[in-house]
């Protein structure tokens, strides 16, 4: 099982190539994965 931080790091990698550098730097670069619910 992966931690929320590990999952979010992978998501950020994908988002970095999908959004502009400015948007990534402004909104996403300092964000963190805190928790997730795997019950779905």
Automatic annotation (TrEMBL):
<dbReference type="InterPro" id="IPR038454">
    <property type="entry name" value="DnaA_N_sf"/>
</dbReference>
<dbReference type="Pfam" id="PF11638">
    <property type="entry name" value="DnaA_N"/>
</dbReference>
<feature type="domain" description="DnaA N-terminal">
    <location>
        <begin position="6"/>
        <end position="36"/>
    </location>
</feature>
<dbReference type="InterPro" id="IPR024633">
    <property type="entry name" value="DnaA_N_dom"/>
</dbReference>
<protein>
    <recommendedName>
        <fullName>DnaA N-terminal domain-containing protein</fullName>
    </recommendedName>
</protein>
